[in-house]
Each structure stands twice: as structure tokens, then as C-alpha cells.
Specification:
The protein is an alpha/beta fold. The protein contains 12 helices and 9 strands. Helices cover about 40% and strands about 20% of the residues. Strand 3, helix 3 and strand 4 form a beta-alpha-beta unit.
Length: about 260
Amino acid sequence: MPAKSKLGQNFLHDTGAIERIATALGDCSHTTVVEIGPGRGALTRSLIYRAQHVIAVELDPDLVAHLHAEFPAGRLTVVHQDVLAFDFATAAANAGHRLAVIGNLPYYITSPILMKLAATPAAIDRAVLMMQREVADRVVAQPGSRDYGLLSVTVQLYGPVEKLFTLPPGAFSPPPEVHSSVIRWRIAPRFASLAIDETAFTPFLRQTFAQKRKTLANNLRAAGHAPAAIAHALTHAGVDPQARAEALPVEQLAAVFKALSNP
């Protein structure tokens, strides 16, 4: 079954890595696992012996047919669909519990998939995901580091995330041009504990990180906030007027947001 470059297919064949990824998901014996992009089924084969049930979401019709032929019905359901259209909430309701999610994410839609998972936190308990190493570095980055930015804050707002290990191109067929890293993400949104509104805070974050080279104050002015209100908010949050958003933890960003929202 040849890989299709237009779908970003690079099939994992390193058996040791496959077991490490499946193990990272933890005990799934009473859990439904959604596998994103099962491909030829290398990881699927390990999952069906670990999980209560596996839902494999695959876009490629040829691979869907392959999976149906390779694995008997029972503990595996193959869904021919783009994962960005998959209904995680309904799958969780049908399972009767929050889902575990696993997969080798296509590099070109990694961020949209992460945001898709974040959009249904009540349906997902945890996720173990493989992605381009540079993207994984951004996801787990801490304030003040080179990789810290909007993606870091957004993902971490929905729960703690850690990078587990990195795989070389040779672990895949065909080998990609980049290394790949595996992350583990526990879905536990922080909006309530930070006392902020999700729908309003998300666009605020986009404003604060709009221009990486600009200070937080300049980005907020460009977004239409009054200079006096910005100055008050920064003082209230204990933020240096010359600070950039990339230097601030989410707690301080939330404090600035709340001060701007309630002058």
C-alpha cells in the first residue's frame, strides 16, 4: 500500500516506537480509543489488544478498505472521514465515557486537529499525538523561550502537555524530511480556575501575539484598546510596559485580559 504524499502519509514501522506510543496512552482496557489516521494499521494492531474499543478515523478510501480486510469487526470500527469532521462528542456519548485519542498527525493540519480536540474537552480525557518535532517544541514551550507563542498558550490552556520522545525519519516509510515527536496531553481546561471567558479570551490571545516583535502594549493598541486602559491593565497585572507576550505566563495574560475587560 504505497504512501500518498498529497495526504501527508508517512507510515510508522518502528515496532519499538509503536509499543512506546501505545503504552503512553495508559490503561485503556475500559476505554474507547479514537485513532487519528491509522494508515496501514501498525498502531491499530497494538491498540485493539489494549483498548475496550478502537475507532479508527481514516480519510484515504484505499486504506479504509485495507483496514477492513486486515482486522475483523468487533473491537475495531473504521470510519471513513476527515478527522476535522469527526464528531468526538457523539462518540463519547455512545461510549458512555470520555475518550482517549491517539495518532500520527499529518504535518499540514496538526494545528487544526489540536484545536478540534480542544473544542470538545468534555468528550476527551487524554491524547497521545505524534507531530513534527518543531511543532511539538512549540506546543510544550514555556514563557520566555524561543518557541513560546500563541500555539503554546492555546494548547496549554486546555490542559498540561509534555513531550515524551522524538523519532528519526528512518522510523517511517517513506522517511519524512523532519524528525517527529510524541506528546501526551491531558485535557483539563483552565478557564474556570483563571476566571476568564473562553470565547472572549481566545481572540484576546490572538491580539497579544499578533506581531511577535512588538510589545504586548503595542499589539493591544493595534487591536484598538485605549493607551490609558492598557497602562492600567499592565500595572494591575504586574507586567512590565515593555514586555512582549512571549515572556508572559498565561496567568499574567489572563490578569491583563480581566483588567481590560473590567476597567
